[in-house]
Give the backbone structure.
Amino acid sequence: MMGFFRSIEDDHCMKPLNLTEKILSEHLTGGGELPAAGEPITIGIDQAFTQDATGTMAMLQLEAMGVTRVKPLSVNFVDHSMMQSGFRNPDDHEYLRTISKKLGIVFSPPGAGICHFLNIENFVKPGMTGLGADSHTVNAGGMGAIYFGAGGYDVALAMATGEYRVPMPEVVKVHLTGSLQPGVQAMDVILKMLSIVGVKGGKGKIFEYGGPGAASLSLSERATITNMGAEMGASTSIFPSDERTREYLASRQREADYRPLAADEGATYSDTIAIDLDQLEPLIALYPSPGQVERVADHLGTKIQQVCVGSCTNSSYENIASFAELLKGKRVAVDTLLYPGSRAVAVMMANSGYLSDVFMSGVRVLENGCGACIGQGGSPPSGSISLRTFNRNFPKRSGTPDAQVHLVSPLVAAASALTGEISLPTESVAFKPAPQVVDTQSFQLPPPADEAEKVAIVRGPNIVPLPDFDPLPGQLEGEVLLKLGDNISTDDIQPAGIYLPLRSNVKEYAMQATFNLVDPTFSRRALKHRDAGGHGILVGGENYGQGSSREHAALCPRWLGIRAVIVKQFARIHVANLVNFGIVPLTFRYPDDYEKITQGDAVTLNVTNLEGEITLDLGGEKLPLDPAYGAKDMAVLRAGGALSHFKATYQG
Ligand code: MIC
Ligand code: SF4
């Protein structure tokens, strides 16, 4: 793609722009041209946010940077670690509440709802840019905004500086025609996309939805679609801002936030995917990957033991009302759990009468939060099948090692909950509309700077400052501590679920959880190797680090002495997190060299010259590697990580 001048409305005559180019050029720091895809760009960030499971570490880093007031609109949401069985979760929340007050950050307390959902309802405006410490931050693309997921350090940096550096994505058009037919929902659109693109095919891309079919989708339907762009490994996804956006904002008393935005006629894209919504049918992503998409019709009759409805993907009023409408007056046949996306959605359920309907159908209505999606309760029985409207079905994420999770739309979930087997809805569902409920009073706004100075930050005993990490030695010598396969997710590297209370304590989290579901001996082996002076090396296949943005999947391995990860291909957010914690990310130049390595091999890597040729010395045989880091990352790697580099270089 050729560069072009930074330009908005008045420059349109020069070159028709797609929507991504319009918003990114508007936000490019220092102006100039947008570069070719893959080249780094620095953009101004209008909003930055965290959630509690990533937020405490991001805040600890912000404190270590010496930041006293954040620059962009910033929010700390609490939605993940909600079990509060013991002091750790509530202490995390108290730390987040008080540090938010101190640094000028809006605080969203437990019970208000899921971060992405609340974000769309209350904060995101068309044309904004944002960065969130959660991979599903891309949900905001449904509002015609460009939002990226990132690790906690990058979000802390964006809060400190108001900027973010990211590779310029390739822009792919998704041309939608037709409209969703009865029984088919937005979830089926994104599952269709996953069946076309796969779980790694979105890397380095922004999916820009458009065409006449886009206009037929409501804002929450659009958000369901952009949300699960994370499962394709995409940088982000975006819809135009149009009449449907205006309607939604007006219903939430935010019409003043509306701004129409669309690609110019004749805008160019690197590729186009066409989907005819008229032709879509209900789809299912089968365990163990969101990318294993098949027709629901081919799995009818499979017995299930649990149904869960909710998550940031499918917990809008429309989602839950369609589920409730199908259930009304009938009784569920299996354990069925429901998590509304926000307090406003829960109140709309109550106002419309659907709350009573789902209770009377035997559904367990749980808290407005992530819940079972991140293994915070709601685990299915051993050996069972759980049908969920969530976005991830990675092995063991549900908390039950041998349970299988399949992903479906709310309507398929409802039909299946009634029969106890995978089923299709047999009737067409029209749910009752309910007036939007505005719940901004749930948010705690920060005091002005002079008052904030007096706020005392409350730190429970589990909130432990980040360890200091050494600079990178010239020669890495050590053992391949683990050889892994393809599609290793951050849930494999650093499980969440019952370990979420350890998020603020790196040592405990590393010792108890790192790779423990893959190899329970890993932490102890790695620690021993580290303490004997070894540099731990990990080897993996394709799409290494897929899934969440959790930086702990780099931070904890680093604490355990891992200094380099060598794989066939990395997922975007994880590779940035590795660099931030001083772990050298490398890829095999010849993917077949992967086969030559065995776990336990002694290896040497000369990393004195990160710009130059790096080879893996495997008992005398030299395997050529390629850097997965960019030019600007080298100084960070040499410093031992981003925080040390920031402290040494940032002028404030
Ligand atoms: C997830 O869905 O995996 C999470 C939990 O929301 C993560 C963030 C985290 O691990 O804290 C994500 O998607 O980034
Ligand atoms: Fe929460 Fe699940 Fe969404 Fe992650 S994917 S933010 S755990 S609801």
In short: The radius of gyration is 24 Å. Residues 53-54, 80, 134-136, 149, 374, 496, 547-550 surround alpha-methylisocitric acid (ligand 1) (CB under 6 Å).
